[in-house]
Design goal:
The protein has helices spanning about 50-55, 85-95, 110-120, 140-155, 165-175, 175-180, 185-190, 225-230, 245-250, 250-265, and strands at about 10-15, 20-25, 35-40, 60-65, 105, 125-130, 205-210, 235-240. By secondary structure, the protein is an alpha/beta fold. The chain folds into two domains: about 10-135 and about 195-265, Rossmann fold (3-Layer(aba) Sandwich); about 140-185, no CATH class. The chain has an eight-stranded mixed sheet, sandwiched between helices.
Length: about 270
């Protein structure tokens, strides 16, 4: 496991479109090469990245970690968000901080958000890294049950007396993501109902796809890595053995080496 004893990330808040967004910043050591912007997955937060990424500041990279709206220390969305609003929020942070041509690294839902930013060229990017990214449609029975129940139980069990029944059904179906963040239920349905397959061919920046060999997440099984590689031009792929959906935690050193090699290739 990596040990990080380098500088402690500074915490900041910024307002983007009336949305209060929390982020962490680490300055580069020595002349700055580029800025790396990290986007976490659904239900997660920025500090999860720290063990495997803070060492990159020692190699000349400024690091920005954004708590996506509704997670970490960022404000909950004032209305149900779609993928577009998340992408616009991240783009707004990049613009307000005057970050020039960053490399965006997104895990799971963060990867899906990064795909939207890159495909629509919301801000100029130098590169893109997708880590166990979601975004592709899945028709497995398990996934469809989760999506179907999440959509169905809201109108049926809106009566307060039935709240416990609804929660039980969701947990039984495996829809824990829906249960854990009740204030984001509408947003969750919006996000899992939207796919970005057709956007992949519009990504023009160098891209790295990193995946845990044992990722069996319903929304990002390891087989998706090949689909991303096939449909995004100029793509490199790295499958990390003995790692699951959080490959950057399961095999920190290998993940760090892979990411470092990619961002260094872009800088050169």
């Amino acid at each position: 496991m990596l040990q990080y004893t380098m500088q402690k990330p500074r915490e900041r808040d910024i307002v983007v479109g009336a949305q209060l967004v929390h982020y962490y910043q680490v300055d580069s050591v020595g002349p700055q090469k580029n800025t790396l912007v990290f986007l976490h997955g659904w239900g997660s937060n920025s500090p999860l990245w720290f063990p495997s990424t803070l060492s990159l500041a020692e190699k000349g990279y400024e690091l920005i970690f954004i708590d996506l709206p509704g997670f970490g220390r960022s404000q909950n969305p004032q209305k149900p968000f779609f993928l577009e609003e998340y992408a616009e929020t991240v783009a707004g942070v990049v613009e307000k901080l005057e970050i020039r041509s960053p490399i965006v690294i997104g895990h799971s839902f963060g990867g899906k958000t990064a795909i939207r930013i890159a495909s629509k060229q919301m801000v100029p990017l130098s590169g893109l890294v997708l880590v166990d990214s979601s975004g592709l449609p899945h028709t497995s029975f398990r996934t469809q049950v989760k999506i179907g129940i999440a959509k169905t139980v809201k109108p049926i069990f809106s009566i307060p007396l039935l709240q416990g029944v609804r929660t039980g059904l969701l947990r039984l179906s495996g829809s824990d993501d829906y249960v854990a963040f009740p204030e984001l239920r509408e947003t969750f349905i919006n996000i899992i109902s939207e796919h970005v397959t057709e956007e992949l061919s519009r990504i023009a920046v160098p891209t790295m796809v990193i995946w845990g060999e044992r990722d069996d997440n319903s929304y990002s099984p390891v087989g998706d890595a090949a689909v991303f590689q096939k449909n995004i031009q100029n793509t490199h792929i790295r499958i990390i053995k003995n790692a699951g959906h959080y490959c950057f935690l399961d095999q920190q050193q290998e993940f760090t080496d892979s990411l470092s090699s990619f961002v260094e290739s872009i800088h050169v």
